[in-house]
Amino acid sequence: MLYRDHISQRYPRKEQVGSRTEVTLRPLDPGDQAKLLDFFRGVPEQDRLFLADDVTNVEVIAQWCGQLDFDRVVPLLALVDNQIVGSATLHRAKGGWANHVGRVRIVVHPDFRGKGIASLLVRELMDISVDIGLHKLDAEFMSGQEGPMRMFEKLGFVRIAILPEHVLDRRGQMHDLIVMTYDLHSEETSPVD
Fold it and tell me: Could you tell me which of 172, 122, 171, 112 has the C-alpha nearest to residue 151?
């Protein structure tokens, strides 16, 4: 419960993005199941192809909302007018040789892209990562996700590996896996505002 306590002290919080969009940041809670399902069903199928899970499946969303474990996954939402417009997660192992590394995943609804919500969510996860003692953050992409990779590069992430034909999208098409990383303790890699 250490991480849940840490998160509950930070949120909810309001931020201004873009010209006049007020966003509320807060962690996912069990009561968000219907809203989260609506959010993911509103994301175009082409974008959902690159997600690891079938986020339009009621059972998947029910499991996420019903089995919250902030020590493993910190799920952060961005809401506008009480509607989910962005979802970001920080994944970490509880033990083992990579327990100092977090993995970031993010999805923003297309109607709210280009306003800075994705950058805001990633920066939040970077701050949380430092606070909970992580040293590195990884983000994984499939070939074809150039826009999201550019945004992560602007925040200081660097491409460290390309694994040819390593992953399958939701339609079973083969893609290269691109791994990007961010060193949370390097003076050279401080987030760009």
Answer: 122
Domain boundaries, the chain: 2-183
Residue 178: φ, ψ to 5°: -110, 125
What is the CATH superfamily name and number for domain 2-183?
Gcn5-related N-acetyltransferase (GNAT) (3.40.630.30)
pLDDT tens, 138-177? 999 988 889 899 999 999 999 999 999 998 877 888 999 9
Closest CA to 22 of 12, 32, 31, 30: 12
- Compute the residue count for the chain: 193
39, 54, 157, 163 alpha-carbon torsion, rounded to 10°: -160
